Amino acid sequence: MNLKKIAIPTIAIIVFLLLWELLVWANGWPNFVMASPSDLGPAYTRYWELFLINGWQTLWRTVAGLALAIVFGTALGMIMGFSRTMRDALYPLLVGFNAVPKATVVPIIALMFVGAHDFNTVLIAFMISFFPIAVSVSIGLSTLEPEYRDILRSLGASKMTIFWKIALPKTLPEFFGALKVAVTLAFIGTNLMEIVSPHGRGLGALFDSGRTNSDYPLMFAVLIALAFLGIVLYYVVVALEKVFAGWAERQET
Known about the structure:
Number of strands: 0
Order of helices and strands: HHHHHHHHHH
Largest sheet: none
Oligomer: single chain
Radius of gyration: 22 Å
C-alpha cells in the first residue's frame, strides 16, 4: 500500500513532464518562448548554489508565516466557534479581507515596513494563509453536538477543557484539510512579496532575475523548485495528519 502511494504520484509527475516536453517539441518552441523539462537540468546545474540559498530563504519564511497562521487562525476559530455573536461579527470582516487581492497589499506592506524584508515576507505569508484555518476551526466548533457541551458543563468543565477533550479531536480532520490549503497559500504569499517587492532574496527574487535577463529555463526551473517545496511541505502535513488524526481516514478496500 505504501509503495502504491509513492508510485502513483511519481508516475503522474513523470507523465506530466513527458507531456510538457512533447508539447514544446510538437510546437517547435525555442526555450526563449517556452522552456521544456530538458532545459531545466542545465539551469539547476548552472545555478545550483543560488537555488540552495534562495530556496532555503523562501522555505523558512513560508514555514514561519504558516506557523503564525496556525496559531492566529486556531485562536480566531475558537473565538468564532464558541461565540455566535463573534462569529456573526467577524465573518464579514474575514471574507472582505480575504477577497482583497494580496498583490495589492504587498506594496502597502513594503512601504509601511521599509527595509524589514524578512518581516514583510513572513507577514504576507501569514495574511494569505490564516483564513482557511480560522474558518475550519470555527465550523468544527460551531457544529459540536450541544449534548456534549451540556454534559461537560454540568460536570464543571470549562470551555478550554471542552475544547481540548471534545472539540479539538473533532475538528482535527477539518483543521488538517485547511492546513493543506494554507500550505500552498503561504508559498503564494511569500513569492508575491519576493517578486512584487524585490530585495534579492528567495526564489521569487531568482525568478525575477530570470525574467529581467530573459532566461526562461531559469524562470521555469524556479517554478518547478517552488512546486517541489510545496509538495514536500504538503506531505509533511499529511504525515502529521496521520499521526494526530489518522483515525478519521477512510479505509479503502
